[in-house]
Amino acid sequence: MQNGSYRIFKDKVVIRIKDRLCDTPTEMLSSKLFLQMVSHSIGALSRRNSRLLGIFDHTEIDGDDIRLLIETFLFLTKLPADLVPRVVKGSDQFFRNRSLFNEFVEYLYNSWREMQRLIICDSQDETYDQRPYRTFNNTVETLTHLVRSAYRDIQENITGNHPRIYRQVRAGAEIATIALPRQINYPNGIFKLLNDIALIRQVLIYPPLIFNPPMNKRSGTFERVNRNPLEFINIKKDDWLCYPARVGPLVIMVYFT
Are the C-beta atoms of residues 182 and 200 closer than 8 Å to each other? Predict the structure, then answer.
């Protein structure tokens, strides 16, 4: 990703971009986000002692093994499986059982799709909010195409077969938003600290949008405090968003992280 960042929270990934996402499968597979996703997935398989880790010829998997696997994926987007071991030294271990390797790729793809995926387009000093369709098309649609095309190219080069039926599932982000800071005339000067937080202007949703939040059973009571929390907390603007909610004649600024 160029001029962007990301954060992963358990089963959620939030991608914040300033300019653009990846343009090619090679750029996507070479990103730090993909490296972390592969590492996270392999860690989950290790905790379950999964047979999918049989694609490696040893049990202790380290960072070098993961980087070798990613390099193999990079060439599998361009070359058939028979040629990859000739250009990627050590990758022959992955092709001992191509059916198992294909299952691993399917698991990796599904692990990404099972996450809740959000893209935030930072429109500060830009005009993304004035051309939202183009912005969403260059981000969400591009990411969807890249993920699906890389997944299909890799699987087809592993198996040597082309599917008869293609699943056009949501492979990119499930929700995207264009946000930018907006000066709001709050009555109290302390609230000006909130003007650095990006305000949501447009939202794109791929329905059905289904989130499964954990069960929340509150206990205790809400206690009133004598000081405004803004007086003693440090707000990191990149960790927050503001959603302006219209409630009857009022506009309620909902800040969340």
Answer: no
State whether residue 214 is helix, strand or coil. coil
> Letter for the amino acid at 158?
I
Q: 2 pLDDT exceeds 60?
A: no
Q: Is residue 208 part of a domain?
A: no
Amino acid at site 95: F
Structurally, how many domains does the chain consist of? 1
Q: Which residues contact 159 (CB under 8 A, 6 or more apart)?
A: 98, 102
Distance in angstroms (rounded) separating the CA atoms of residues 156 and 77 = 9
Instruction: Give the residue from 177, 202, 174, 176 showing the smallest Cα distance to 116.
Output: 174
Residue in this structure with the two tokens 């959000």, named with its chain if needed: 118
Can you tell me which residue has the tokens 């087809």? Answer: 156
The string of pLDDT tens digits covering residues 140-180 is: 888 889 999 999 999 999 999 888 888 778 888 888 888 88
The pTM of the full predicted model, rounded to 2 decimals, is: 0.84
Which residues form the domain of 155? 2-159
